[in-house]
Input
Amino acid sequence: MKLKKEIFILAAIIIGLSIYLVARKPDRALYELPKLPPVSGSEITRIEIGGPRANLVLSRSNNDWIVGDEKYPAAKSKVQQMIDTIEGLTLTELISTTGDTTRYDLTADKKIRVKAWAGDTLQREFEIGKTAPSFRHTFVRIAENPNVYNARDNFRSKFDQELADLRDNQVLSFPVSEIRQVRVTRGAGSLLLERKEGALEQSGAPQAEETAAAPVKAEMVWQTSEGAKANQARLDSFLTTLSQLACDSYVVDRGKKDFSAPIYQIRVTGSQDYELAIFDKLGEDADKHPAISSQNDFPFFLPDWQVKNLMPEFTDLLQDSKPE
Output
């Protein structure tokens, strides 16, 4: 009987404690995650970023984005990553209510402040700390809320950028299929290649006279005005490189008008002219060439290896006319 009584008392205590713990709600409000209002990424027109590396402002200009006071074109893919993060920001866990920010890199000298606007309306404001140990979350604080939360995904690096990181490095772009003329100029010499309709030679034994000859197919061939044919493989590679040309970096202390006397010029013509001018290096120890493009308002640098591909000898673009 004594054993049964002790078991009964123990069970009663366990049940009582369970009921107490379920019913008890000490400081429960502190553990309720804030409900973030929805934000539509397509409506965001301005993003302000303040952090240890830089203070930047990105603004929407029609369907493009610009960055900085100089209104440089911004890299669309990087801006879209920011917008996706702002729109999809999701808090998953309350981490700290003590006000301690040091251990989360949310101190004034380490945190990244983000504000997203739709017109004159502030849509979202938050601070980014370091990546959580899981590497799948990021420590954040929301607006004036002093608490630290885990936010879904690892996204600090998307906002931890400098101006040069966010500039669009695409300096020339065109569809190769529309190009019908290529002119390259080096010093006083130049080479002009035009795409013209030619004829494919028929192969095999000649057909009997009584058999109607099949129509000869036409092809587009590249050649000079004198009829010299282009090295098709080399020209295709040249145009492909040129058609999606990205620079290494931008010249920060000069404008396009400060450059003259290019060492190599390229003009390709399709629905419009696309031009690239390459200049001498700015110093003996430099490993990049400054250049300008008809599709970019700012001078930029191209590394040596890229310039080598963009400055072929004229003979490299032509078929070898020597007899085999």
Residues 21 and 199 are 89 Å apart (CA to CA). The longest strand covers residues 121-131.
